[in-house]
Amino acid sequence: MLKNKTVVVTGSSRGIGKAIALAFARKGANIVLNGRGPSSEALEKEIQACGVEVFYIAADIQHYEEAKALIHAVKERFGTIDVVVNNAGITNDKLIMRMTEADFMKVINVNLKGTFNVIQNVSSIMLKQRSGTIINLSSVVGLSGNSGQANYAASKAGVVGLTKSVARELASRGITCNAIAPGFITTDMTNELSDKVKENSQQQIPLKRFGSVEDVANTAIFLAKSPYITGQVINVDGGMLMNG
Ligand SMILES: NC(=O)c1ccc[n+]([C@@H]2O[C@H](COP(=O)([O-])OP(=O)(O)OC[C@H]3O[C@@H](n4cnc5c(N)ncnc54)[C@H](OP(=O)(O)O)[C@@H]3O)[C@@H](O)[C@H]2O)c1
Known about the structure:
Blueprint: E1 6-9, H1 15-26, E2 30-35, H2 41-48, E3 54-58, H3 64-78, E4 83-86, H4 101-129, E5 132-137, H5 140-144, H6 150-170, E6 175-182, H7 188-191, H8 195-203, H9 213-224, E7 233-236
Parallel strand pairs: 1-2, 1-4, 2-3, 4-5, 5-6, 6-7
Helix pairs in contact: 1-2, 1-9, 3-4, 4-6
């Protein structure tokens, strides 16, 4: 089902994005990697070893023109864009009292506006194709809120509203749009947390451990193989948030 498809994963130089790119490559999809810096030769080789094509495009997705150039370069190289995973994201944690307007906007611009920038540019291509899968990375924090993360939680809650609206707009052309809301996943992002915060967090997780990047990647593959699921938010959080 995913063989020879074109899959774009933003923010795929490391962490969850890298694992998602590798998971799709193992299913036979051609992969477009993205980050702000230079490409990783080692990652490109790992993906090529799956017998698929890999194409790295440096772009800072918070800038509309860079997101547009990214999507257009993919279309030019592969002709179709089958799956887009909006994974690029950042944190900049501070209590609200100390959070400046710049601190707030920095996170909104990458996590929410960056996701909009990519979807807005890919939507016309997918509408013409009459097919496509969009997967956005939200967070449990976007659903529950978290002290010290007003900017991040707001951006990830925004991603949920964006996901559901786009799902409704594009459904009639067979395009799905869903979000994944991870809890604590072991990556550079969570490695920044102190040992005390990590220990406390684990105690609040019913499965009593952080998730792996593969846990999230498996969910992305599941969504890409599920054309009758749209407008949903799937929590990958060890049971942290059990919605009614
Ligand atoms: N880890 C968790 O526990 C967790 C939980 C919930 C949700 N999430 C979400 O999952 C996603 C991935 O998280 P992660 O933990 O894997 O993060 P990470 O290890 O910090 O990696 C973030 C990736 O995004 C890229 N990136 C950052 N800003 C970018 C920009 N403006 N344009 C393009 N690429 C950009 C980074 O590449 P460069 O630095 O090379 O640009 C990197 O590849 C994020 O959206 C995050 O909010 C993570």
